[in-house]
UniProtKB/TrEMBL annotation:
Pfam families linked to this entry: HTH_1 (PF00126), LysR_substrate (PF03466)
UniProt organism field: Paracoccus solventivorans
TM ranges: none
Biological processes per GO annotation: DNA-templated transcription
GO MF term set: DNA-binding transcription factor activity; sequence-specific DNA binding
Protein name: Transcriptional regulator, LysR family
Similarity comment: Belongs to the LysR transcriptional regulatory family.
Keyword line: DNA-binding, Transcription, Transcription regulation
Cited PANTHER family: HTH-TYPE TRANSCRIPTIONAL REGULATOR, TRANSCRIPTIONAL REGULATORY PROTEIN
Domain of life: Bacteria
Every HTH lysR-type domain range: 6-63
Gene3D superfamilies: 3.40.190.290, Winged helix-like DNA-binding domain superfamily/Winged helix DNA-binding domain
Length: 301
């Protein structure tokens, strides 16, 4: 059994290098050091008696033997992942860990108090939150649950729309009134596509003097007066250092989704979390959709 476990560890390491194309990328994905990957790949090739990678100036490229092994290892990985999902899906104990992947916006502005309430009710369930702008692969168990803006529509995922996020234009509380089209703006560049595209359409001549791919960073910039920012009401409405400068045209909102792999739908802790969050976010509808009762300042015309 120990030998078999070591073999699978070596195959996982080989696959990480094949996917990353470099030792450093594989090391980051596996949470080990560059030197560990270098040493173990060398030992693995020596044990097999075959060269799996060409060492090139730009990284590690698969040899023909390496390409054949990669295809086989991917099939093994898919079988192991499918088995793990089926086994986990039969777990009816309200214990264990739930790994949630989400964006910085939702990790800061939506999740914390609901996680605290969930943990108070189910203290034997632990929560791990992975903040990532890209959607982690739920089919490969990189996470158990995704809380996302928008539904990626993968066939193997089960999605539940749990709310809508309203946005508005916000500036520092001491900002003088004025036409948003004539003010300085914090933009998102190519990030947050639907929001960025609509901002460019609504205010095509607005000066974007500061850009970031992070809504949390835009929030921080707006607070200190860098410029106006299109922010979710769930974060900005309850911040006394910000004020609504303008509503976004067309009552702009984005859908909020909870996603899991279909094989996990019968897992007790996952089902408990999904039901809890769906109820909690439904109760948050006024906050999420910009009708926040905790606003301390009236919106400017």
């Amino acid at each position: 059994m120990n030998a078999q476990a070591q073999d699978w560890d070596d195959l996982r390491l080989f696959l990480a290098v094949a996917r990353a194309g470099s030792l450093s990328g594989a090391a980051r994905s596996l949470g080990v050091t560059h030197s560990t990957v270098f040493r173990r790949i060398g030992a693995f090739e020596a044990r097999l008696g075959v060269r799996l990678f060409d060492r090139l100036p730009g990284g590690y490229a698969l040899t023909q033997a390496g390409e054949e092994m990669r295809d086989s290892v991917i099939r093994i990985e898919e079988e192991i992942t499918a088995l793990a999902l089926k086994v986990t899906g039969q777990d009816q104990r309200p214990t264990g860990t739930i790994r949630i992947t989400t964006t910085d916006l939702l990790a800061v502005g939506v999740l914390p108090r609901h996680v605290a309430a969930f943990r108070a009710e189910w203290p034997e369930i632990e929560i791990e939150v992975i903040v990532a702008d890209t959607v982690l692969d739920l089919t490969r168990r990189e996470a158990d649950v995704a809380l996302r803006i928008g539904n990626p529509g993968q066939e193997t995922l089960i999605g539940r729309r749990v709310g809508r996020l309203a946005f508005a234009a916000y500036g520092a509380a001491d900002r003088p009134p004025g036409d948003p089209a004539e003010g300085d703006w914090i933009g998102y560049g190519s990030a947050h596509g639907p929001l960025s595209r609509n901002l460019a359409r609504w205010w095509p001549d607005a000066r974007q003097i500061y850009r970031t791919n992070s809504i949390i960073a835009a929030h921080a910039g707006a607070k200190v007066g860098i410029g106006l920012a299109a922010l979710p009401c769930v974060i900005a409405d309850c911040d006394p250092s910000l004020i609504r400068a303008a509503a976004l045209p067309e009552d702009f909102m984005l859908d909020l989704w909870l996603l899991i792999h279909e094989d996990l739908r019968q897992t007790a802790r996952i089902r408990l979390f999904l039901d809890f969050m769906a109820t909690a976010l439904a109760a948050d509808a006024d906050l999420l959709e910009g009708r926040c009762p905790c606003r301390t300042r009236p919106a400017q015309a």
